[in-house]
Amino acid sequence: QVQVSESGGALVRPGESLRLSCAAPGGAFSAIAMAWYRQAPGKQRELIASISFSNITDYADSVKGRFTISRDNPKKTVYLQMNSLEPEDTAVYYCNKNQIVYRNLYTWGQGTQVTVSS
Question: What is the reported pLDDT for 97?
Fold first, then answer.
């Protein structure tokens, strides 16, 4: 199975920042559109940020202007810079191929927990 690995989650206070990292499997990473997803308690997993192979990015309205997705192709890593965090951002964060582009995704990793609380 080809699996991704997320890291960087933590407990932070409202208004603080975090940067998440995602190590993607080997292969033609630079040609793959990637995305970050999150799943809050009691809710379905949702796509919140995506980046194409040519670095075109897109964001869900809920994170637009606060989160930034980026990629480092030589390191096969995708990042999510999260600023001005809000309690509503509390969730498990996952990365994977962009499900809008691809039918076959990597095996989901365990995700990384982000908790925003005062």
Answer: 95
